[in-house]
Amino acid sequence: MILTDEEQQMLDGDKGSAVKKAMEILVALGESFGAKRLVRTNNVHMAGSSVLVAEEAGTRFVEDIRDQGGNFVTRVTTNPTAVDPTIWDEIGIPEADHVLQKRLTAAYAGMGANACNSCIPYLVGNNPRFGEHMAWGESSAVVFANSVCGARTNREGGPSGLASALTGRTPEYGFHLKENRYGKFLVKVQVPLKDMTDYGTLGCFTGKIAGQDTPVFTGIPDDPTIEQLKALSAALASSGSVSMFHAVGVTPEAHTEEQAFGGNQPEKVVVFGQAEKLETEAFLNKEPSDHVDWILVGCPNATVQEIREVAAALEGKRVHKDVALWVTTSGAMYAMAERVGYVETIEKAGGTVVRETCPFLARSRVIAPKKGYKSLTTNSAKMAFYAPGQFGLPTHYGNLDRVMKAAVNGVWS
Ligand code: F3S
């Protein structure tokens, strides 16, 4: 790789041992992917911010970097953690995770991170610009940033994100280059998409056939909501390793089908119709009985709009006594929802608005047996895809209306 004089000085250790180690990581990563150079970035979203992922060794690594004088030179936001800092004990999170998480979050914050602890950084203080080079982790946020915002990022892991935050550089390969951002195959959507769950179902269907390839959608309504696009982004990156999609007439690099494909022909054309939708919904419904005990709304993190819809569904009702309802969100969204009374409505009805964590990044293999949860019911395709394999809970999957009826009645119908 060709380095500038300043980058070479960083690699030689002129800016301290933390920056030297960071530059070594970036050069090794860039060379393994054939990058010719580094590009400047001022925007990092850190994936390795949960102790479920970092554990003791990863936490020490981040603390060591801080103690060597590590200082973030870019804007840095952080992904959800393993802990709700206020009600961790009540919801079954182990104390050891609470203690370790405080250390990890403090280490990131000590180097200058904005510890928003959210998987929707684009809604809580880190809104990417079109064309901006970034180093983001969190697969759902990467797809949203590349596709909906037109920013440029690969899927970064914890160490490479940390290295970019310390140096303000990221290797120029993959989705940083225009020629890698064109669509590879076409998905013709031929069924109405009514709510964010339908968008998640489309994402799950497409991700399974995509691998790492970029899909181009036609037939998506021209006015999807932020919530629908985040559900699509999350599901694409769960059942597949997709980092970007185009929706013709919706996303900024796909004003036309020709633009989305860069003038190339699609390698394949698939249809998403009623049969494909039903088949994917059946795939995500792994729990054969009508048993409901743990309900999750807010993957990716719930917006105030979603929290409002949950509150409206619970107005004058109660969550069934055998059901735990989690609405997972960021601290910032929580504060806004609390201010307008939605949190109070949900809590009075017996639900819980959980901050800064989710069943995927908390230690659900400990929480579920401790609380007696045997299944997970959700309106999120991403969570329904991961729950059976990641923490051993079969899922009920359906739209918010169906999920909230299950919350009140205690059965899946
Ligand atoms: Fe966010 Fe957790 Fe879902 S990090 S995207 S709520 S799995």
From TrEMBL:
User: Is the keyword Magnesium assigned to this protein?
Assistant: no
Keywords linked to the UniProt accession: Iron, Lyase
What would be one Pfam family of this protein? Answer: AcnX
- InterPro entries noted in UniProt: Acnase/IPM_dHydase_lsu_aba_1/3 (IPR015931), Aconitase_4Fe-4S_dom (IPR036008), PMDh-L-like_dom (IPR007506)
The Phosphomevalonate dehydratase large subunit-like domain sits at 1-404
| GO-annotated molecular function | lyase activity
UniProt-recorded name of the protein: Phosphomevalonate dehydratase large subunit-like domain-containing protein
The organism of origin for this protein: Rhizobium fredii (Sinorhizobium fredii)
Upper lineage = Bacteria, Pseudomonadati, Pseudomonadota, Alphaproteobacteria, Hyphomicrobiales
